[in-house]
Known about the structure:
Largest sheet of chain A: 3 strands, antiparallel
CATH superfamily of the largest domain in chain A: Winged helix-like DNA-binding domain superfamily/Winged helix DNA-binding domain
Oligomer: homodimer
Distance between the termini of chain A: 39 Å
CATH class of the largest domain in chain A: Mainly Alpha
Helix content of chain A: 40-55%
Low-confidence stretches of chain A: 1-6
Number of domains of chain A: 2
Amino acid sequence: xxxxxxxxxxxxxxxxxxxxxxxxxxxxxxxxxxxxxxxxxxxxxxxxxxxxxxxxxxxxxxxxxxxxxxxxxxxxxxxxxxxxxxxxxxxxxxxxxxxxxxxxxxxxxxxxxxxxxxxxxxxxxxxxxxxxxxxxxxxxxxxxxxxxxxxxxxxxxxxxxxxx
Amino acid sequence: xxxxxxxxxxxxxxxxxxxxxxxxxxxxxxxxxxxxxxxxxxxxxxxxxxxxxxxxxxxxxxxxxxxxxxxxxxxxxxxxxxxxxxxxxxxxxxxxxxxxxxxxxxxxxxxxxxxxxxxxxxxxxxxxxxxxxxxxxxxxxxxxxxxxxxxxxxxxxxxxxxxx
DNA sequence: CTTGCTGCAAAAGTTTTGCACACGT
DNA sequence: ACGTGTGCAAAACTTTTGCAGCAAG
Lengths: 164, 164
């Protein structure tokens, strides 16, 4: 397990994000509670895409007991604060990713193995602006998800060739 | 209401799609029932993106009473038969579109007004293949959704400028 | 006739909400 | 102190499933 060059929970990020969230909350007349701090920490610790339930369980294991309801309520605030973004991967389950200070990314998803790879494509932002301009819309954000078969899934399929 | 040049329920499409679905079902040892025919008809009548509940209500109004369960079960078969595709617009609700014989499309979505515009971008298919090749994946499909503020929403906001 | 299909109602899964009490400012 | 937040459990919502009778091949 080698350390990636830049991780989402870089020291440089943690401080300002906490401050940014506090400021956001104050501006809305909301409070920066212990629970919200813990949830923000849990989010910062995630490297890629995550779901609400994941946070709940990870926090339980770390003995940071926060209720499901509070997690959902806080995720909404984090979305509004633009600290996280929703990533549309599954139409029955919400997925999120840390987005603060990062370019939007595309996602490569393997439905078989549930692998998710993030990738950056500068063209997408241009595309977004061009399409919006053509229709007279103001761009807000975008999602680009590619579904495919990962190398792992292909390998798995080889030993599984006998279908039916 | 002028007639669009090409509608999804073109005569040219209805026949083969029905035949294609029948063939698909037979190959799977499944049956082509009256209910499945009605649902396919309802799907063909939809111009753009639709949801399960929409079909249910529209069919009820047309006195084509089919149960929720059957609609969901049939949509799954239509997906497998590649007659429709899932469009990821909302993470809590499934959206579909007729996909048979059509290029994948991108979608411009306005969360405020719920408008959805389809657009074609040839570059997306190339992009999909390039990204997959870079990671050693086999491409299957993709979704490109842009969120933005539609002209209608902008107009609506003007009369709404006084934000508490 | 055999096998799969339908409708219903209940179950399952995620997300939201009402309420009484607790905490941040 | 005031106004929010929290946890809990129940509600809401979409989607799935078990079962008894029904229809397609």
